[in-house]
User: What shape does this take?
Amino acid sequence: MASSSGGQEKTEKATPKKLQDARKKGQVPKSADFNAALCLLAGVIYFYISRDTLAQQVQEMLNHYFHNYIVAPPSVNRLMDIFIGTIAGVFGLLAPLFIVLVVIALGANVAQFGFLFAPEAIKPKMSKLNPIEGLKKKFSTRTLFELLKALLKVFVMGVVVFCVAKVKYGQMLKLFYGPPVYLFHKVLEALLAVLLWGGIAYLAIGIIDLIYQRYAFQKEMRMTKQEVKDEYKQTEGDPQVKAWLRRRQREMLMNLVQQEVPNATVVVTNPTHYAVALRYEAEKGDTAPKVVAKGADFMARKIKEIAEENNVPVQENKEVARFLYHNVEIGQEIPPQLYQAVAEILAAVYRLNRS
Assistant: This one.
């Protein structure tokens, strides 16, 4: 198992961030044999479906050349016409096949790893020129698998050709006694049989290769526990720093509560989960009550304790306390839709103070 610096083994699964970074570099699990097998089968199926049409087109093209070019006296212009006509004829025959193969190749890639554009994958890397790294790759498990896979492909294709030749042996002997068209059809039939069964066997090898490539990729992307911790610190922040920030925020909030609550006009509670301290001093020019402190759970209890110690009235109103805690920040005035409800709370406080 691979190990990193410091002797730690890579036992942890790759994080989504590492997989995303690798994808940006073009590092994804893919099998070239799987793509090639699908393209081979697509080509065989295309030739099988259109074999009669292709045979007729080839025959017409050959007849055209024999009647119009070979019999006539040769010349530079005629040779050029033959060359251009041959290229155009071959292109016309094979263009549909090329389109099919391109579509199948793109579809196979998308099926394996989705749409991917990774410019970094084509950038030159000095590490590729490192002879030490090259030797490591030559003696890796992946290289051994590739060697076994290559031997398996040769063996399988040899077996396929032998089996098809054995079945078609009797028909091949009759080819020399038939017309050229019969010879063409039988040779094409035998060739398609070899390619079809070879393609099916190749596809099985491609599926095995795809499974292995995904396994090898996941193994290669594994991380040490320290790498996972370091990545978490980079993406989420150092846990110690975050704890210090939370602790500092609590201290600042506590100082604010201790400073503002004693001077508050009223504390509105949930009664247990939320507590919001309001201050309203019309003689000082306040146009509306203002939130001077708020807190939930532990901080709510501290606000109520400080309010009781300083004889600040505490009024229970669940809806108002909850709304103020979630929607009004410290230092802001209450919204107009709460004027009526807060006015009733303040009126109750004033009546309590007069009594």
Notes: The chain has two domains: 16-233, 241-354. The first strand starts at residue 266 and ends at 269. The chain has twelve helices and four strands.
